[in-house]
Amino acid sequence: MSAEAVNTEHPAHGHFVRQREESRELFRVAFAELAERGLLAPGLPIRLAADICSSHFDGVQVQWLLAPGVVDLPGQVELLLRRFIPQWDALVAESEAAEAAVIGSDRTGGDQTGQTTDASPSISTTS
């Protein structure tokens, strides 16, 4: 449907235009934040990188949906992002640590600082 919606007369044209604009903007914001932290490849044009990622993700997603056992969507995404984010491994480790902290605080009823926020009993998933 997105291919048909390139026609300005198509009823879904506006939807797809907004969706693509939002995708590019999400990448721009993320890349700008990474650049501020010194994690983006030096000299990488943020707008161009955002456009490339948004376009690639649209295309690879369609290919993966058509041939999920053939197209390595996660591998392609990671390979592309590693070119733009040389500190990829550090960023992933940081993200995983933050996620583990949130999950751990959820299990104890605490907030992200580990402080208890209520007296709800925790439920153990182990026996």
Give a structural overview:
The longest helix has 24 residues, at 13-36. The chain has helices at residues 13-36, 46-66, 73-84, 88-108. It is globular. The chain contains four helices and no strands. It is an all-alpha fold and 127 residues long. It is 61% helix and 0% strand.
Shape: globular
> What level of helicity do the residues show?
55-70%
**SS field, number of helical segments:** 4
Strand % is under 5%
Helix- and strand-based class? mainly alpha
Largest sheet: none
Low-pLDDT runs of 5+ residues are 116-127
SSE run? HHHH
Instruction: Count the E strands.
Output: 0
Characteristic terms for this protein:
mainly alpha, disordered C terminus, 61% helix, 127 residues
Question: Secondary structure elements and their pairing?
Answer:
Blueprint: H1 13-36, H2 46-66, H3 73-84, H4 88-108
Characterize this entry briefly.
The chain is mostly helical. The protein has helices at 13-36, 46-66, 73-84, 88-108.
